[in-house]
Amino acid sequence: MSGGLGGFRPWFLQRVSAVYLLAYLIFFLAQVLVCPIEDYARWKAWLSAPVIWMATALFFLALFMHMWVGLRDVILDYVHPFALRVVLLTGLGAFLAALSLWIFRALVAVVML
Fold first, then answer.
1. Which one of 4, 44, 72, 93 has the fewest beta carbons within 10 angstroms of its own beta carbon?
2. Contact 24, 59 (CB under 8 A)
3. CB-based burial label for 96 (10 Å; 0-12, 13-18, 19+)
């Protein structure tokens, strides 16, 4: 471990992402409760606003980073055979990368269409 920071960086990343996820969810729920969005056109208009679009993209980025750190730690702690660990971590990384691309594509489609 470099500089004695072994688990600090993942721990910090998970805490920061958790704070952002909570803040976004509170904002989103307040938005939906105060001004209900009832049809597709309003959802699209709301999500097409650059600030909302970026906040939503950052939400999903934070969600996937949060998932990566948590699931990576579980795999590292409980899966002992090295080959199985590599396979599971690679599969998890590929799954989260594919999910990230799918979400990004959906967000871009909302703005472009």
1. 4
2. yes
3. middle
Helix (H) or strand (E) holding 110: helix 82-112
What number of other Cβ atoms are within 10 A of residue 56's Cβ?
19
d(CA 109, CA 97): 18
Rg of the chain (C-alpha set): 18
**How far apart are the C-alpha atoms of 92 and 73, rounded to whole Å?**
12
pTM over 0.85: yes
For residue range 77-90, list pLDDT tens digits in order. 999 999 999 999 99
Please report the DSSP string for 9-68 in residue order: HHHHHHHHHHHHHHHHHHHHHHHHHHS---SHHHHHHHHHSHHHHHHHHHHHHHHHHHHH
